[in-house]
Amino acid sequence: MKVNILAAMLAALGAVASMPAGAQSQANAAAAAEHVVAVRAGKLVDVVAGKVLADQVILISGQRITAVGPAANVLVPAGAERIDLSHATVLPGLIDAHVHLTGDPKLHGYQSLGVSDIRAAMYGVHAAKLTLDAGFTTVRNVGAGGFGDIALRDAINDGEITGPRMRVAGYAIGIRGGHCDNNLLPADYHYTENGVADGPWQARAKVREMAKYGADTIKICASGGVLSKGDEAGAQQLTLEEMRAIVEEAHKLGRKVAAHAHGASSIRDAILAGVDSVEHGSLIDDEGIRLAREKGTYVVMDIYNDDYILQEGAKAGMLPESLEKEKMVGRVQRENFQKAFRAGVKMAFGTDAGVYPHGDNARQFYYMVKYGMTPMQAIQAATINGADLLGWKDRIGSVSPGKYADLIAVGGDPLQDPAELTRVTFVMKGGAVVKPAPQK
Ligand code: ARG
């Protein structure tokens, strides 16, 4: 019965003219039907071993990597398509664990009020392409209005638009009047953001609602923020009790939880509640660092963001109070990044793209190295660690057999100069070339 179904499927695909009898030869025929590609890499960054390998061949069948090894040892099947990156350095596709694809960096504060959720989703189509072309083959979108991120993920997966693999949260969940509410309008307008929840049971219900409409990740706002009106970045918002309810509900439903948390007490309580990652982490103290290390909680610090906010924020409509708040947290966050990393806290790469322009994500590598990581460690944060945080270690994050063929290349040496990663020359996602290598 099974064999008949396979035969029917292959026939439907037009893969074979006449079906051989044995199941074994049918399996061979199925493999032959898949497009085989051999990528020759002058250098290959092995993020698992933390070293750079010379002159490698990566064999790809369909969407997945089937073999990786020295060019002299890998047998390239006759008829395979060959991609020559022998003058480049190849890396696994990068992962940004904190983006807002539906966010337009030119429209902050009151300038954002005229944008409908549908218009924002249309902008997200544009941002998805920019992000993928910049070498980010996977992103975790931590908060979007109108479930726009879920629509983007599904349209990308259905092949209608071009973009990275996505983890998505729907609306971020937080308290009334908090960072994840929208506090720009006066009471006359009766506006409350859809992610608002007060009390453990409302918070649980919001988790259920996000899951119902397709969220595979839950985003919460544990503290105030920089870009929200009328709150303090360092002040706690969700209570420990609320966060415990959220995490229990989310984990029960198989979703990880990402907690926006700048202030020390919000970071502590988020970790105690069992969140999977702390986002921003700006004012993390010794206790937060100790707890994150003990519990294995990832910390995702957006340490490029400060540059754009202070230089371009006012023009983009950010409120004067936001710029003041940024001056309080920006520098401290970078110092705490170094402190937390040195203390052994697990870190994944996340940038908050959407606050600043999509496609500039890799600008953050410079700061990660300036504030204490080696270039290899920064690359690992954006590959293998990101994959682990997203729960996708089985499919992305390294160039290994069995994983998706998500590959990028740069001309120079990113281990000497991490800014090379801002000049990605080649992008492949799931075996399909999205940005071809320049002709020599
Ligand atoms: N979305 C964040 C907030 O509004 C941005 C924080 C940016 N600042 C920083 N130093 N990372 O709180």
Plain-language structure description:
34% of the residues lie in helices and 20% in strands. With 440 residues, it is α/β, with parallel strands linked by helices. It has two domains: 124 residues, Urease, subunit C, domain 1; 297 residues, TIM Barrel (Alpha-Beta Barrel), CATH 3.20.20. The strands form three sheets. It has a seven-stranded mixed β-sheet with strand order 3-2-1-4-12-13-14, with no helix packed on it. Strands 8-9-10-11 form a four-stranded parallel β-sheet. A three-stranded parallel β-sheet has the order 5-6-7, sandwiched between helices. Helix 3 crosses helix 4. The longest helix has 23 residues. The protein is globular. The N terminus is likely disordered.
Characterize the main sheet. 7 strands, mixed
Number of strand elements: 14
Q: What is the element string, with H for helices and E for strands?
A: HHEEEEEHEHEHEHEHEHEHHHHHEEE
- 3D shape: globular
Report strand order across the widest sheet.
3-2-1-4-12-13-14
Structural class: alpha/beta
Q: What is the CATH architecture annotation of the largest domain?
A: Alpha-Beta Barrel
**Measured distance between first and last alpha carbons:** 51 Å
Hetero ligands:
arginine
Indicate the radius of gyration in whole angstroms: 23 Å
- How many domain modules? 2
CATH class of the largest domain: Alpha Beta
CATH level 3 topology of the largest domain: TIM Barrel
Mean pLDDT: 94
Q: Residue ranges: pLDDT <50 for 5 or more in a row?
A: 1-22
State the helicity in percent bands.
25-40%
Content of β-strand = 15-25%
What is the assigned CATH homologous superfamily of the largest domain? Answer: Metal-dependent hydrolases
Count the helices. How many? Answer: 13
